[in-house]
Amino acid sequence: MIGLGLVLGSAIGAVMFVKNGIDPLAPGEAYYVRYDSTTKLSQIADELSGKVVRHPNAFLIYARYRKMTLPVSTGTYQIRPGMTADELLAALRRPIQQMVRIPETNFSFRTARLLEQKAVTTEKDYLEWMNKPEEFAQEVSFPLPEDSLEGFLFPDTYDLPPLLGAKAVIRRQLQAFEKKILPLVPNEKTRMRTLIIASMVELEAGVDDERAVIAGVIENRVSKKMRLQIDATVLYGMREWRRLFNKDYRHDSPYNTYRIDGLPPGPICSPSVASVKAALKPAKHEWLYYVALPNRRHLFAKTYEDHLRNVARARQLRDGVSP
Questions:
Q1: Which string of b and e fits 134-148 if b means at least 16 CB within 10 Å?
Q2: Helices 273-280 and 211-223, axial angle in degrees (round to 10)
Q3: 96, 112, 199, 290: most buried by Cβ count inside 10 Å?
Q4: Cα 323 off chain centre by
Q5: Helical H runs in 146-280?
Q6: 94: number of Cβ within 10 Å
Q7: 123: how many CB neighbours lie within 10 A of its CB?
């Protein structure tokens, strides 16, 4: 009987150990944890000890009882102090999926801000890694530029969970570029020029059927050695996205196409497939000028005098005055 009593006492002690050891801690704010490889549950229990898990060994015994001891998959998870053991075990089986749309019209610094807002990475980290192309040279099958990956970070909708990190985001964007854009621009000698023009088309065209037309205007001005005078390049050099004022056109930047001749030194965004195709096959015409209308279309002109008339008409439409 004494032996039986000892066994029962030990069993009751073990049960109480587990029961007390998995009691929830004080409630707190939810937060994210990230595992970049498959991770043992025992390691996670140790890392969460005193934060979400009261006693790691008790938690693991309970997990074995629930038959939920499989390693935790790569991913980001949301947990919080005050979770029950069952809630935590369930949360560690549900990696977060967060679909993030990176617009075609984003300058890289706008994408960086978006990713920070989504808790994917910090703005600083994204911009730092974007300016280290050499770190990604082995990730792709084509040569990367030396200074910046602007133009090569394909805009799309990606699954970018919180805490994913800048390198992983850029890696995915480069892989998408390799799949969707590289086949269109296989010629390394002309690739950068095409991307520069496509990036300006991306930010200037408001409707698809005008992309090639605007690409034609850019080519016409380049061939006549006219300055491009594209507002989006000024904004890129200023690292801002807002309405321009007269003083802004004097901003000293290699991207200010009101002050420099020819094309800017690099792309001002990472263009879409449609804009790349437009840059590759610009429309043939004699237009040298265009002005935007309220409906996002443009009025095109061959002469400066006609352009001024178009500007006046566009202004009347914006002001709600019948031309």
A1: eebeeebeeebeeeb
A2: 40
A3: 199
A4: 42
A5: 166-180, 188-204, 211-223, 231-238, 273-280
A6: 11
A7: 17
- The token duo for 160 is 């970018």
Please give the helix or strand (H or E) that residue 159 lies within, else none: strand 157-159
The two tokens of residue 156 are 């799309």
The answer to whether the beta carbons of residues 221 and 227 sit under 8 Å apart is yes
Which amino acid, 147? D
Residues in the chain: 323
Q: Is 247 exposed, middle or buried (0-12, 13-18, 19+ CB in 10 A)?
A: exposed
Nearest to 70 by CA among 89, 52, 47: 89
Q: Is the four-CA dihedral 177, 180, 186, 190 of positive or negative sign?
A: negative
pLDDT at 72 > cutoff 80:
yes
Instruction: Give the C-alpha separation, 52 to 268, whole Å.
Output: 45
Q: Report in angstroms the alpha-carbon separations of 273 from 20, 106, 124, 297.
A: 59, 15, 28, 20
Kindly state the greatest CA–CA separation across the chain.
110
Residue linked to tokens 């032996």: 3
DSSP string over 8-55: HHHHHHHHHHHHHHTS-------EEEEESS-B-HHHHHHHTBTTTBS-
The angle at the Cα of 190, spanning 186 to 191, to the nearest 5 degrees, equals: 55
CA dist 243 and 257 (Å) reads 16
Q: What is the pLDDT of residues 212-271, one digit of tens each?
A: 999 999 999 999 999 999 999 999 999 998 999 999 999 999 999 999 999 999 999 999
First to last CA, the chain: 106
Q: Which H/E stretch holds residue 31? A: strand 31-35
In this prediction the pTM is 0.89
* Closest residue by Cα to residue 202 from 236, 172, 227: 236
Residue 156 to residue 322: CA distance in whole angstroms: 39
CA distance 240 to 231: 11
**Cα-to-chain-centroid distance, residue 17:** 47
SS3 string, 148-162, reads CCCCCCCCCEEECCC
